[in-house]
Structure to design on (547 residues):
């Protein structure tokens, strides 16, 4: 079916409803027969007959952000939604008169919400915890207290009755039309009125509302180099004779000073290293009832040649002392500083990269502090490749910053042109995108040209196309944890192929693979999109004990 192409019409008066009006990528494509700005509900995306092209302005800090596991869409998004709902109540002056709150989870949030900690996240958001600043070690206690007393301190201030068992409602058979990850908050006030808001967690921790008309602050920013497609980025690099991270940095300066960008990125890098370190020094069993044994610590000790691991509590869990000093000393040991004559074998290197990725995703599965990159289920790929660069290629902080700027831009290209939500596109949207981001970042610091960097991202995604999301028992553990090792190894392979290739000879472009990923996402059956109703989730018989 073909639709008439329409011209771009300034000024930008109407927002596409796609993803809450955050963007319209439609003007290059055809219009949907769904009326105003429709599209996503029918799976026909990027289509709007009004065609006001608003380029979404995404910062690298929107793509890489510090958070809490196990899922960006099912944990971080609902957490942020709960915070935003209370913000709305405060703004309307009704916060003080809330007598009860009920939360309704729909679609994928209901189907895999238990395993992904959606109820936990909603409780934390309502209780006033922030995913960036909270003490993650305290969170289980807070949840336990709320469940035991059936009371919650809204924002940590106003205590009301709240029984998560009955007031967080899982609507397993209902999916809201706008997006599979919908949730509605209802607050009953003392005068009997009800305040109701619905949010959609659209991947990577991003939360939107269907009727969102207020321009997001980020959206209002006019970037010097607006980038909608990979071809735009390459053109700017050519015109400006600049590298990809240089172009991205110039855009970032519209939000922050150069010093703030650098410091912010290094802080994220520290959070990633600490996460890897914690995972490499924690043994035991992951929560959720699958009884998955942590492996990163054992591998770490084997590779370092140190004696026996660690002692732990009754479950065998240990709490490592995480400090910058300890982390850097451990990285020196991984690098074998001072033993330069003993080179790492190929096997050792692969094992180390895998260990780094396993460490992050074991932490993620254990509701630990991670960096969403671009999602939590795929949070191990980029840190694993960055640790590889730091430990095995001696990458400097400057190169790490370049890596992150490059990777962040590639992530935003996928978010604009396809999706980073597994509920929309399966695991290709998570592990595939993170692998493409990591491949681009690594190629950049290996000296690749902008064309080669894009080729690295393209190669990495090309070999994740069609990958489904089928987490067993709805937990972000199997196949998720190991999948991060594969994503990291593929990223390293892709970068190495790209730096030896001529991108002008490439048959598949980055834009071409992004489009293909989105087409594949639309064709994928919904049971493979984070519902735990297909694939490994139904073919592997497991008994999940209550926990
Ligand atoms: S299978 Fe992939 S997309 Fe699905 S939860 Fe696991 S890591 Fe995320």
């Amino acid at each position: 079916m073909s639709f008439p192409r329409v011209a771009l019409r300034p000024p930008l008066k109407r927002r596409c409803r796609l993803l809450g009006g955050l963007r319209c990528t439609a003007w290059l494509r055809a219009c949907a027969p769904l009326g105003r700005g429709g599209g996503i509900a029918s799976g026909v995306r990027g289509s709007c007959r009004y065609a006001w092209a608003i380029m979404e302005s995404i910062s690298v800090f929107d793509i890489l952000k510090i958070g809490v596991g196990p899922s960006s869409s099912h944990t971080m998004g609902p957490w942020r939604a709960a915070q935003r709902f209370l913000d709305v109540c405060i703004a309307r002056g009704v916060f003080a008169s809330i007598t009860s709150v009920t939360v309704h989870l729909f679609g994928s949030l209901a189907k895999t919400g238990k395993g992904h900690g959606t109820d936990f996240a909603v409780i934390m958001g309502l209780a006033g915890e922030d995913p960036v600043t909270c003490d993650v070690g305290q969170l289980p206690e807070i949840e336990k207290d709320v469940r035991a007393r059936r009371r919650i301190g809204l924002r940590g201030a106003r205590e009301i009755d709240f029984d998560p068992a009955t007031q967080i409602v899982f609507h397993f058979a209902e999916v809201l039309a706008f997006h599979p990850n919908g949730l509605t908050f209802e607050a009953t006030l003392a005068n009997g009125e009800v305040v109701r808001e619905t949010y959609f967690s659209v991947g990577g921790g991003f939360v939107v509302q269907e009727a969102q008309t207020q321009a997001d602050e980020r959206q209002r920013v006019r970037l010097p180099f607006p980038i909608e497609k990979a071809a735009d980025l390459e053109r700017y690099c050519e015109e400006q004779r600049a590298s990809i991270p240089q172009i991205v940095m110039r855009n970032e300066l519209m939000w922050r000073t150069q010093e703030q960008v650098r410091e912010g990125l290094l802080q994220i890098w520290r959070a990633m290293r600490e996460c890897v370190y914690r995972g490499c020094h924690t043994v035991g069993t992951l929560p959720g009832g699958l009884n998955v044994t942590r492996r990163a610590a054992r591998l770490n000790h084997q590779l370092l040649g140190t004696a026996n691991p660690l002692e732990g509590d009754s479950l065998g869990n240990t709490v490592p002392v995480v400090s910058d000093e300890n982390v850097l000393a451990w990285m020196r040991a991984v690098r074998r500083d001072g033993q330069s004559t003993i080179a790492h074998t190929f096997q050792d290197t692969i094992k180390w990269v895998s260990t780094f990725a396993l460490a992050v995703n074991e932490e993620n599965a254990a509701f630990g502090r991670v960096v969403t990159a671009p999602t939590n289920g795929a949070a191990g790929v980029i840190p694993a490749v960055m640790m590889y660069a730091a430990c095995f290629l001696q990458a400097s902080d400057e190169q790490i910053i370049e890596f992150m700027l490059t990777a962040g831009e590639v992530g935003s290209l996928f978010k604009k042109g396809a999706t980073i939500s597994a509920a929309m596109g399966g695991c290709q949207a998570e592990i595939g995108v993170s692998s493409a981001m990591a491949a681009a970042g690594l190629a950049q610091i290996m000296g690749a040209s902008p064309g080669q960097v894009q080729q690295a991202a393209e190669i990495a995604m090309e070999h994740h196309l069609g990958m489904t999301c089928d987490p067993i028992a709805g937990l972000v553990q199997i196949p998720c944890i190991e999948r991060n090792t594969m994503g990291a190894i593929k990223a390293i392979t892709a970068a190495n192929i790209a730096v030896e290739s001529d991108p002008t000879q490439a048959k598949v472009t980055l834009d071409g693979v992004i489009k293909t990923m989105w087409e594949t996402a639309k064709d994928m059956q919904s049971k493979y999109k984070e519902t735990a109703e297909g694939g490994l989730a139904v073919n592997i018989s497991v008994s999940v004990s209550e926990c």
About this structure: The pocket of iron/sulfur cluster is lined by residues 377-378, 422, 427, 430-431, 469-471, 476, 479-480, 483, 530 (CB under 6 Å). Residues 230-539 form one domain. The two ends are 51 Å apart (CA to CA).
